[in-house]
Amino acid sequence: MENQSYTATIVVDQSPEIAYDAIKNFRSWWSEEIEGPTDQLNGVFVYHYKDVHICKMKLIESLADKKLVYQVLDNQFSFTTDKSEWIGTKLIFEIVAEGGKTKVKFTHEGLVPEYECYKVCNDAWGNYIKNSLYSLITTGKGMPNPKDKDGFNAELADKWKIKH
Known about the structure:
Blueprint: E1 6-12, H1 16-24, H2 26-29, E2 34-35, E3 44-49, E4 53-63, E5 67-77, E6 90-98, E7 101-109, H3 118-139, H4 154-159
Antiparallel strand pairs: 1-7, 2-3, 3-4, 4-5, 5-6, 6-7
C-alpha cells in the first residue's frame, strides 16, 4: 500500500548545509512561539499557537546536512474531537544534493487523510514548507507565526512541563 503520509518537496539553489541549518531553526520558519531547543539531538521543545494548537517534539535523529527526524511526543488541537492526533507521528526532513541544487523532502509520517486535522494540517504544512522554510533557505528570512502579544501561556507551560 502506498504511503499516504503528508509530503512536500522544495528545491533550492543553496547548499545542503544551509538547508539543514535552516530546518533546525524552527523559530525562523514555523513559529516564534517555541520554547526549548529545536536543534539539539534528544532536545525537546514545545510549539504553541494561541489556543488552537500545542505540541511537544523531540529531535530523535540528526545526520548532518542529510536528515532530521522529530517525534511528536504530545499534541492537542482545539478543533479536533480526537485529541491523540499527531501523537507518535514524525516530522522527517531529507536533504539531497541534486544537479547543483538541494532537494528538501518533508514527510509528516503518520499524518494521513483519515485524520480529522488533515485538511487544516495539509494547508498549514504547505505554507510553512513551500513558502516560509523555502524563503528562509533562499533569502535568510522565513515567515513564522509571530510571538503571541500576550506571551507564552504559563498554564499551558505547566501542563506541558516546560520552563518558560
